[in-house]
Every structure is written in structure tokens, then in C-alpha cells.
Design goal:
This protein is mostly helical. The protein has one domain: dinb family like domain (Four Helix Bundle (Hemerythrin (Met), subunit A), Up-down Bundle), CATH 1.20.120. The chain is 52% helix and 6% strand. It is built from seven helices and three strands. It has a three-stranded mixed beta sheet with strand order 1-2-3. The radius of gyration is 16 Å and the shape is globular.
Length: 206
């Protein structure tokens, strides 16, 4: 799944974004990862026990560190196509997802069926990710993965089925269990590393 970003202030840009999403097979509803394997990358975190997802996040963060340290500087900061993330922007997105979804897991424990908004930083923030220091980003990804792992380790087993509602506006309203939030976070780390490496099979379909 290529992640895309186009300014919402331009109606023609918004149409272009939807065209890109369709062409790249992004029609699959990504909340389904909490129960099904990804049709593009094959990752199936829902088949794992919830208590193992923290260690999975840490392992995938290590893979990101290795990639960020080894990648060519030009490749790391170059977008392969209009509206598509550069590899380092994918890394920043993964860092953000690990943080945001861990926050939402904690919120789901603290509150009864909380509602959270779409996570969609403005264009300026996406552009700033291309200027990140690779070592600092690698450390941040690992820190957020360890934080998620700590939350998983401390989770009461009875809390995994608690619900968090994600109101994504025009993109729909979806519900996640707390274990489903963890599934989504670890899947993003795996799936987008394939994106960043240019290894994702874009011929997959939903």
C-alpha cells in the first residue's frame, strides 16, 4: 500500500489522490487487519496472540533501524511518484502510528468506547519528515515500539476486547478492539517497510 498525501484544499488534487489510491489497490478497508491477513503484503498479525504483539513491534522497529542506517541518502529522501511517500516519510509515518495507536490502546482501557479522529498530519508536516535525521528517526521508532511493548505486557487479558471507535470522516467510521489496534500498529511497521524498500507487490488486489 503506497501511502499518499495531497492537499485537501485542492479539489483536483483530491480527485488525483483517489485515482492514485484506486490504481495502487488501496480500496481494502485497513481496519480489517485486526481479523484478516493483508491482501497485499500477506502479514497476518491477528493470527498471533495479543500478548506477542509487543515483541513483534520491537522486532519490526529493529528492521526499520537497519534499513534507515543502510539506505542510500538520495533514495531515502526521494518520492518515487506524485503524492507517494519517500522511504524516510514512511519511517516517520510508522513512528507516528506506533505512538498514536499505543495512545489509543491506553485510552481504550481508561474510557468506555472512546471515539478518536483520523490521524492525518498536514502537508507541511509530511514535507518536514524528509529533513529528519535518520539515526534520530530510527531511535524514535524503536522507542515507540518499546512503549507499545510495555503497554502490551501490562495489559489485563480481559481488556483486549474493549472497543475504540475511529471516526475517519468521509473515509468512514470503524471500530477496533484494543488487540486490533496493536495488530494495526505492527502491520503498518511491516507493510510500510516493504513500501520503503520498493518490495511490495502492487499487483495484489482486495
Amino acid at each position: 500500500m503506497y501511502a499518499t498525501y495531497v492537499s485537501s484544499s485542492s479539489s483536483s488534487g483530491a480527485r488525483s489522490l483517489e485515482e492514485i489510491r484506486r490504481e495502487l489497490g488501496e480500496g481494502w478497508q485497513w481496519h480489517r487487519i485486526q481479523a484478516e491477513p493483508c491482501p497485499q503484503c500477506g502479514d497476518y498479525p491477528a493470527a498471533l496472540s495479543p500478548s506477542s504483539l509487543g515483541a513483534c513491534a520491537v522486532e519490526r522497529a529493529t528492521a526499520w533501524r537497519d534499513f534507515l542506517r543502510a539506505a542510500d541518502e538520495g533514495y531515502l529522501r526521494r518520492s518515487p511518484a506524485f503524492g507517494v511517500f519517500s522511504p524516510i516519510q514512511y519511517g516517520a509515518h510508522v513512528r507516528n502510528i506506533l505512538q498514536v495507536y499505543t495512545d489509543r490502546m491506553l485510552l481504550g482501557v481508561e474510557r468506555e468506547n472512546p471515539v478518536v479522529p483520523i490521524h492525518n498530519p498536514p502537508d507541511e508536516e509530511w514535507e518536514s519528515y524528509n529533513r529528519l535525521d535518520r539515526e534520530m528517526l530510527a531511535a524514535d521508532i524503536e522507542a515507540q515500539a518499546r512503549r507499545l511493548a510495555n503497554v502490551v505486557e501490562a495489559m489485563d487479558p480481559s481488556a483486549w476486547s474493549r472497543i475504540v471507535t475511529n471516526d475517519r470522516g468521509s473515509y468512514g467510521v470503524y471500530t477496533f478492539t484494543i488487540s486490533g489496534l496493536a495488530c494495526n500498529a505492527v502491520h503498518e511497521a511491516y507493510h510500510h517497510l516493504l513500501d520503503a524498500k520498493g518490495m511490495l507487490n502492487q499487483g495484489s488486489s482486495s
